[in-house]
């Protein structure tokens, strides 16, 4: 898509179900997180997102902080998790390479249909040995469709446009996945490429650039944007689309202000922070799978039957945040697809009343064949949990007793493992082979323990 081409060209039809995807990229310049990210995530919007993808660059990563962040979630991850979890979003995956951080959140209802999750990273800083520059990715299947999200921080400075493209190509070449359907980044049905790509505005002096920004005549700057220029020369870049840059350049600002760089260096403003996407064309997939073997024919038929379309609904920056010399950039997309499956792999539910006064039971049933394991487990989570590690307790699934799909399997849980305070909870089945949750129960009430209530009354009497 050309920068000035109307997005209405990509109107979504009613052939499939539409999902809302919210992408954020932000170079946070080692700053601590703000108190509130409501505006950044559009949490007051009447249309809620189904998926959130958040890519940060230059997250503080000095040795002591980085080591502590490896042991527990970093402050940025904690902020997004604590903000989204009460709204029934789960952190499905995350990956970090020094200052590069990539987070993927989903509405809880979609989680059992997000599978084959894998994360990779590639260093490009200091001869490929240092992780201050490079790319981190998360790939997965969403209702059977392969998606890949790639967060990059590429080489800085005006004169390194060619090096930035070389780094991007190196990242694409070096990242391979354990997935026969999509072993490389560009094999995925849909790829998002975003981050601090560091492309600058060339051939215009500072005064000309600032006049265009002041008058909001951004189109005059597009033709001098290095990424736009490089796309004319590089076939691989032409495969990626981007919405119109109808917002002011997001770099470089004085801290805690909306004023462009007033230091002695007076760096020229630029759209360094970008969000692009690549939807594989059907013709492309036909060429790739033109072999006569049965597997290729099956994949081709699957591609034609389960189509995917994408439309960008919003591409903008958020000027509200000033803790960094970059402004965050937001892309909101409508993703239309036909689900390849609508049934979770496992159905499970709590049996009877639950409290810490008695041993409790749960039942689960495989609805489709999958590779189970003695390392599969079922976790008890409070409603509003933040990630798969945020369980209250867990119990191992009975792999050796998995029978036909019409039989329920009973598992007992000791009363000592049930929370005495009670509360709204869910059960989740975690597959160690698939490395993801493949079944979630309906929410149910765990009653407060009578023993705990009696202890509470006793303590109260002791103090009165």
Summarize the structure.
With 464 residues, the protein is α+β, with helices and mostly antiparallel strands. It is 20% helix and 32% strand.
Indicate the topology.
Layout: E1 17-27, H1 38-41, E2 51-57, H2 63-71, H3 75-84, E3 89-97, E4 100-107, E5 114-125, E6 130-142, E7 145-153, H4 161-174, E8 190-196, H5 206-214, H6 219-222, H7 226-233, H8 235-238, E9 273-279, H9 282-288, H10 294-305, E10 308-317, E11 329-337, E12 346-351, E13 360-366, E14 377-382, E15 393-396, E16 409-413, E17 423-431, E18 436-440, E19 444-446, H11 450-463
Parallel strand pairs: 1-2, 7-8
Antiparallel strand pairs: 1-11, 2-4, 3-4, 5-6, 6-7, 8-9, 10-11, 12-13, 13-16, 14-15, 14-17, 17-18, 17-19
What features would you describe in this structure?
- Strands 3-4-2-1-11-10 form a 6-stranded mixed beta sheet, covered by helices on one side. Strands 5-6-7-8-9 form a 5-stranded mixed beta sheet, with helices on one face.
- The model is unreliable at 1-11, 286-292 and 457-464 (pLDDT under 50).
- The chain has 11 helices and 19 strands.
- The relative contact order is 0.13.
- The chain is 20% helix and 32% strand.
- The protein has 464 residues and is α+β, with helices and mostly antiparallel strands.
- A hairpin with a 2-residue loop joins β6 (130-142) and β7 (145-153).
